[in-house]
Write a structure and sequence with these properties.
This protein is of the alpha+beta class. The protein has a domain of 90 residues. 46% of the residues lie in helices and 12% in strands. The protein is built from twelve helices and nine strands. The strands form two sheets. Strands 1, 2, 3, 4, 5, 6 and 7 form a seven-stranded antiparallel β-sheet that branches. A hairpin with a 6-residue loop joins strand 3 and strand 4. Helix 1 crosses helix 4. It is globular, with a radius of gyration of 23 Å. The two termini are 31 Å apart.
Length: 339
Amino acid sequence: MSPQAPPETRNFEGEIRRVGVEIEFAGLPPWETAELVRRCFAGTIREVSPHRLRVEGTRWGDFLVELDTQYAHPDERVLNEVPLRDTERERQRHQMRIDFHSKTRELIGDVVTGLVPTEIVCPPVPWNELEDLDTLFTALYTRGAKGTDASLLYGFGLHLNPEVASFSVAHLVDELRAYLLLAEWLREEIDIDITREVLPHANPFPKDYALKVLEPDYTPGLDDFIADYLEFNPTRNRELDLYPLLAYLRPNYPHELFTDTLVKPRPTLHYRLPNAQLSQRGWGAVTEWNRWVAVERLAADKDELTQRAARYVSYHTRSPLSRGLQRLRDWLRRRRIAP
């Protein structure tokens, strides 16, 4: 399967847009996974800590492979502490604390290996080279990596981080509008796993926020756009997380989420909806990228976007009885045209 071209193929600097890809799965520990990445794309494996590795020097950059829990890895704040006093005794005590902390985290990782997912964080890949990246997904499938549908306990996902084509607020609002209009369709296309529906990591946007953004007179500046997003979405757990992009655009914005260590500022959207469908041969980043392109195509079609937004607002501001009757009419119409 080949990746479909988005309406805007180049980024704000005129270069081919890139896509970050993150995949969670079970069945393969980090060392075995890192070796798989190395065999697919060459490079050199470097151990950052016992359960966190980098595959460095691939054609796209460095891959990060790790157990997906912060408690399996040394805390950078502890590692970066300095002795309280510049004495030999205090330096020894300080080193003992670091060694104890690191060993404890290693033991936690040993215990939870197999219980928490392994995660691969890929370097940004040009959108037109995602088919090459899918070599890794084929290798994971062949080695028996377990995705979302392998267990009711697995809420694993695939995340895409598509680089934005423009920093214009009008452009970002159109992208968000298109996503809000297609979110239900995407959930049906992907067939979101029941475990991921229950877990909070990829929650839908509140209806009131969707109605606000889809109003035709919603033309905010950047700070108003950020303020509205914070008001309705005081959490990272959205199916399309804008915090990495907003933190990139306004790094000094006065809100704690903009300094959260888990929010990594970057010029991308953070699309968290897809399942990790590693049990399906042929599934990979291209499958989900091609679904995402439908959002960008709608965002680029101003007339269609405006019309669909107006229909959405009209429908969702009707009374519950009116909406129920409309659903009944639509159901009857589908029954009449069904073969």
